[in-house]
UniProtKB/TrEMBL annotation:
Protein name per Swiss-Prot or TrEMBL: NADH-ubiquinone oxidoreductase-F iron-sulfur binding region domain-containing protein
Keywords attached to this entry: 4Fe-4S, Iron, Iron-sulfur, Metal-binding
Keyword Nucleotide-binding set for record: no
SMART domains xrefs: NADH_4Fe-4S
Pfam families membership: Complex1_51K, NADH_4Fe-4S
Residue ranges, annotated region (Disordered): 1-28
InterPro entries registered for this protein in UniProt: Nuo51_FMN-bd (IPR011538), Nuo51_FMN-bd_sf (IPR037225), Nuop51_4Fe4S-bd (IPR019575), Nuop51_4Fe4S-bd_sf (IPR037207)
Protein family membership: Belongs to the complex I 51 kDa subunit family.
Length: 393
């Protein structure tokens, strides 16, 4: 069965081939050195240097995180379903690099679980959990693998400091591990032959929205975002904005088309490349889009921290009222205050994502927010940003 979303490469197709068999096996230290020299960065959202994590974990555990809770992303499911040997190779290399006692593969997709179960070697334990937005957070992965709920825990400590059984634990996204396998195979110089100095290599980007079917692309870092959009739509002319890098990146206006796709450039724009999920907007009202995103956060938060529960619910309620013309000026002031005060609250990153979302509204669409007070907006239609794949293997 072919993957249900089209997959295309706009540069070197590094993640579309299985790793080579045979050849000398690198030592643990050689693996760490390759990751450092190649500049392999995390592909789960933060873009953190992999080598730093590898050096911090010794004689503990490794968890390959394939729990893709981001609603507009399919990259992890693609790798687990179609490039299982590449993920397994990366997991084996990471386990050797940190001299891991045990290795785990953590996911929710039933199709991926069946395929990885058939491909995984002895010694790799597969842990399947119900799908949830917060289940992909690294401490949620540690709790679930340890037999608890797939919910985030308070930090610090981070898993690399104290994870499973209080031992150092490397939690690494499955694309990060696939990139590690690619970097070790190619060598640092060849790996860095594409991308930029600060963001080397390629990454997987899921593009959806604008009334077009979603597509998964492998693209080199540094490509202008507008070039990716033009490949997807045929022209970027009708794009009025984007949900960038996943829901945690907030809303960017059409000027984002000029941004090079690097972690630094999207960070300077107040957003993130995140997991590489981009939802294109073409005439959609940013207020209506933000209302649906806030509703998602309110439904999907971990329900563990009062600040998160109350904050996400309050933001969702005000944005919903803005869309129907029922909001007041006081609501708008309260919304902006909540947006500033939610960052850094709670166990998971949901309050941070809500803060980025609200901040992006006021940074790019302040006058539009004000215009919605007491006036019903005909463009604030309901949206569904989830990419749903078939459920059966």
């Amino acid at each position: 069965m072919s993957f249900p979303v089209p997959v295309r490469s706009l540069g070197p197709a590094r993640l579309s081939a299985d790793p080579p068999a045979g050849g000398p096996e690198p030592t643990g230290e050689q693996i760490v050195e390759s990751a450092a020299a190649a500049g392999v960065q995390g592909r789960g959202g933060a873009g953190f240097p992999l080598a730093v994590k590898l050096r911090a974990v010794r004689s503990g555990f490794v968890i390959a995180n394939g729990e893709e809770g981001e609603p507009a992303s399919v990259k992890d499911r693609y790798l687990l379903r179609e490039r299982s040997s590449l993920v397994i190779r990366g997991l084996e290399l990471a386990a050797r690099a940190v001299d891991a006692e045990r290795a785990f593969l953590y996911l929710s997709d039933p199709v991926a679980a069946a395929r990885m179960g058939a491909a995984a070697p002895a010694g790799v334990e597969i842990v399947q959990v119900p799908p949830a937005y917060v289940a992909g957070e690294e401490t949620a992965a540690v709790r679930a693998v340890g037999g608890g709920p797939a919910l985030p825990s308070a930090k610090p400590p981070r898993p690399w400091q104290s994870g499973l059984g209080g031992r150092p634990t490397l939690v690494s996204n499955v694309e990060t591990l696939a990139q590690l396998a690619t970097a070790v195979h190619l060598g640092p110089e060849a790996y860095r032959a594409v991308g930029t100095g600060d963001s080397p290599g390629t990454f997987l980007a899921t593009v959806s929205g604008a009334a077009h079917a979603p597509t998964l692309y492998e693209v080199p870092y540094g490509m202008p975002f507008g070039e990716l959009v033009a490949h997807h739509l045929g022209s970027a002319a009708g794009v009025t904005g984007v949900i960038a890098g996943g829901f945690a990146g907030g809303l960017l206006p059409a000027s984002a088309l000029a941004l090079p796709m690097t972690h630094a450039d999207f960070s300077r724009a107040g957003s993130t490349l995140g997991c590489g999920a981009f939802v294109l907007l073409a005439g959609d009202c940013p207020i209506g889009v933000a209302a649906e995103m806030a509703r998602f956060f309110d439904e999907e938060n971990a329900r563990q921290c009062g600040s998160c529960v109350k904050g996400s619910a309050g933001v969702a309620a005000v944005l919903a009222r803005l869309g129907t013309g029922a909001a007041t000026g006081e609501d708008v002031e309260r919304l902006e205050r909540w947006g500033r005060g939610l960052a850094g609250r709670g166990n998971c990153a949901t309050p941070d994502a809500v803060s980025v979302l609200v901040g992006s509204l006021f940074r790019h669409h302040r006058e539009l927010v004000r215009a919605h007070v007491g006036a019903r907006c005909p463009r604030c239609a309901p949206h569904d940003f989830r990419i749903r794949l078939e459920e059966n293997p």
